Design the sequence.
């Protein structure tokens, strides 16, 4: 793997972790069925730690994990272990999750929790306007309503708005 070599990994390390990275990324059919689950877990942890350590040797790193609430227990454990094992390194993990999700408790690494309040409907519409600029046409309003509904937890699919909001009418030109 060229990326590992660029990070300065030794050839034997590249050879050791490339199969598990290929398996995790779905790039190659690796004989994962030949490995016991605990063995695979250890190899995934080794690969993740090796990648982060090599990167940290080059420069400070921000590791972003979005939507932790969708992660399985093994992935959450891996993140916690990486954060704790690399607590003395120049690593910052930024993790987002829903309010009802309990973040992993760290033992060595510092941890701050910042709770954000949801945007109001008007604030969400302003955000959409900011992303798309001044757009004309009813599709923009439908898109804003769709995003507001999704952000507030109301299912646009249940209301039947998804096909219309997702682009059955093109957004007007910027004016």
Sequence:
């Amino acid at each position: 793997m060229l990326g590992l070599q660029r990070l300065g990994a030794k050839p034997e390390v590249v050879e050791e972790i490339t199969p598990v990275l290929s398996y995790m990324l779905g790039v190659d059919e690796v004989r994962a069925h030949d490995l016991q689950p605990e063995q695979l877990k250890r190899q995934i942890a080794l690969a993740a730690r090796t990648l982060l350590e090599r990167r940290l040797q080059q420069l400070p790193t921000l590791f972003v994990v979005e939507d932790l609430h969708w992660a399985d227990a093994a992935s959450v454990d891996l993140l916690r272990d990486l954060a704790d094992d690399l607590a003395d390194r120049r690593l910052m993990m930024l993790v987002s999750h829903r309010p009802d999700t309990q973040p992993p408790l760290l033992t060595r690494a510092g941890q701050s929790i910042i709770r954000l309040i949801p945007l109001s409907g008007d604030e969400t519409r302003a955000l959409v306007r900011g992303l798309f600029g001044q757009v004309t046409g009813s599709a923009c309003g439908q898109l804003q309503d769709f995003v507001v509904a999704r952000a507030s937890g109301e299912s646009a699919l249940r209301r039947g708005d998804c096909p219309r909001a997702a682009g059955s009418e093109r957004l007007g030109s910027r004016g």
Summary: Residues 60-116 form one domain.
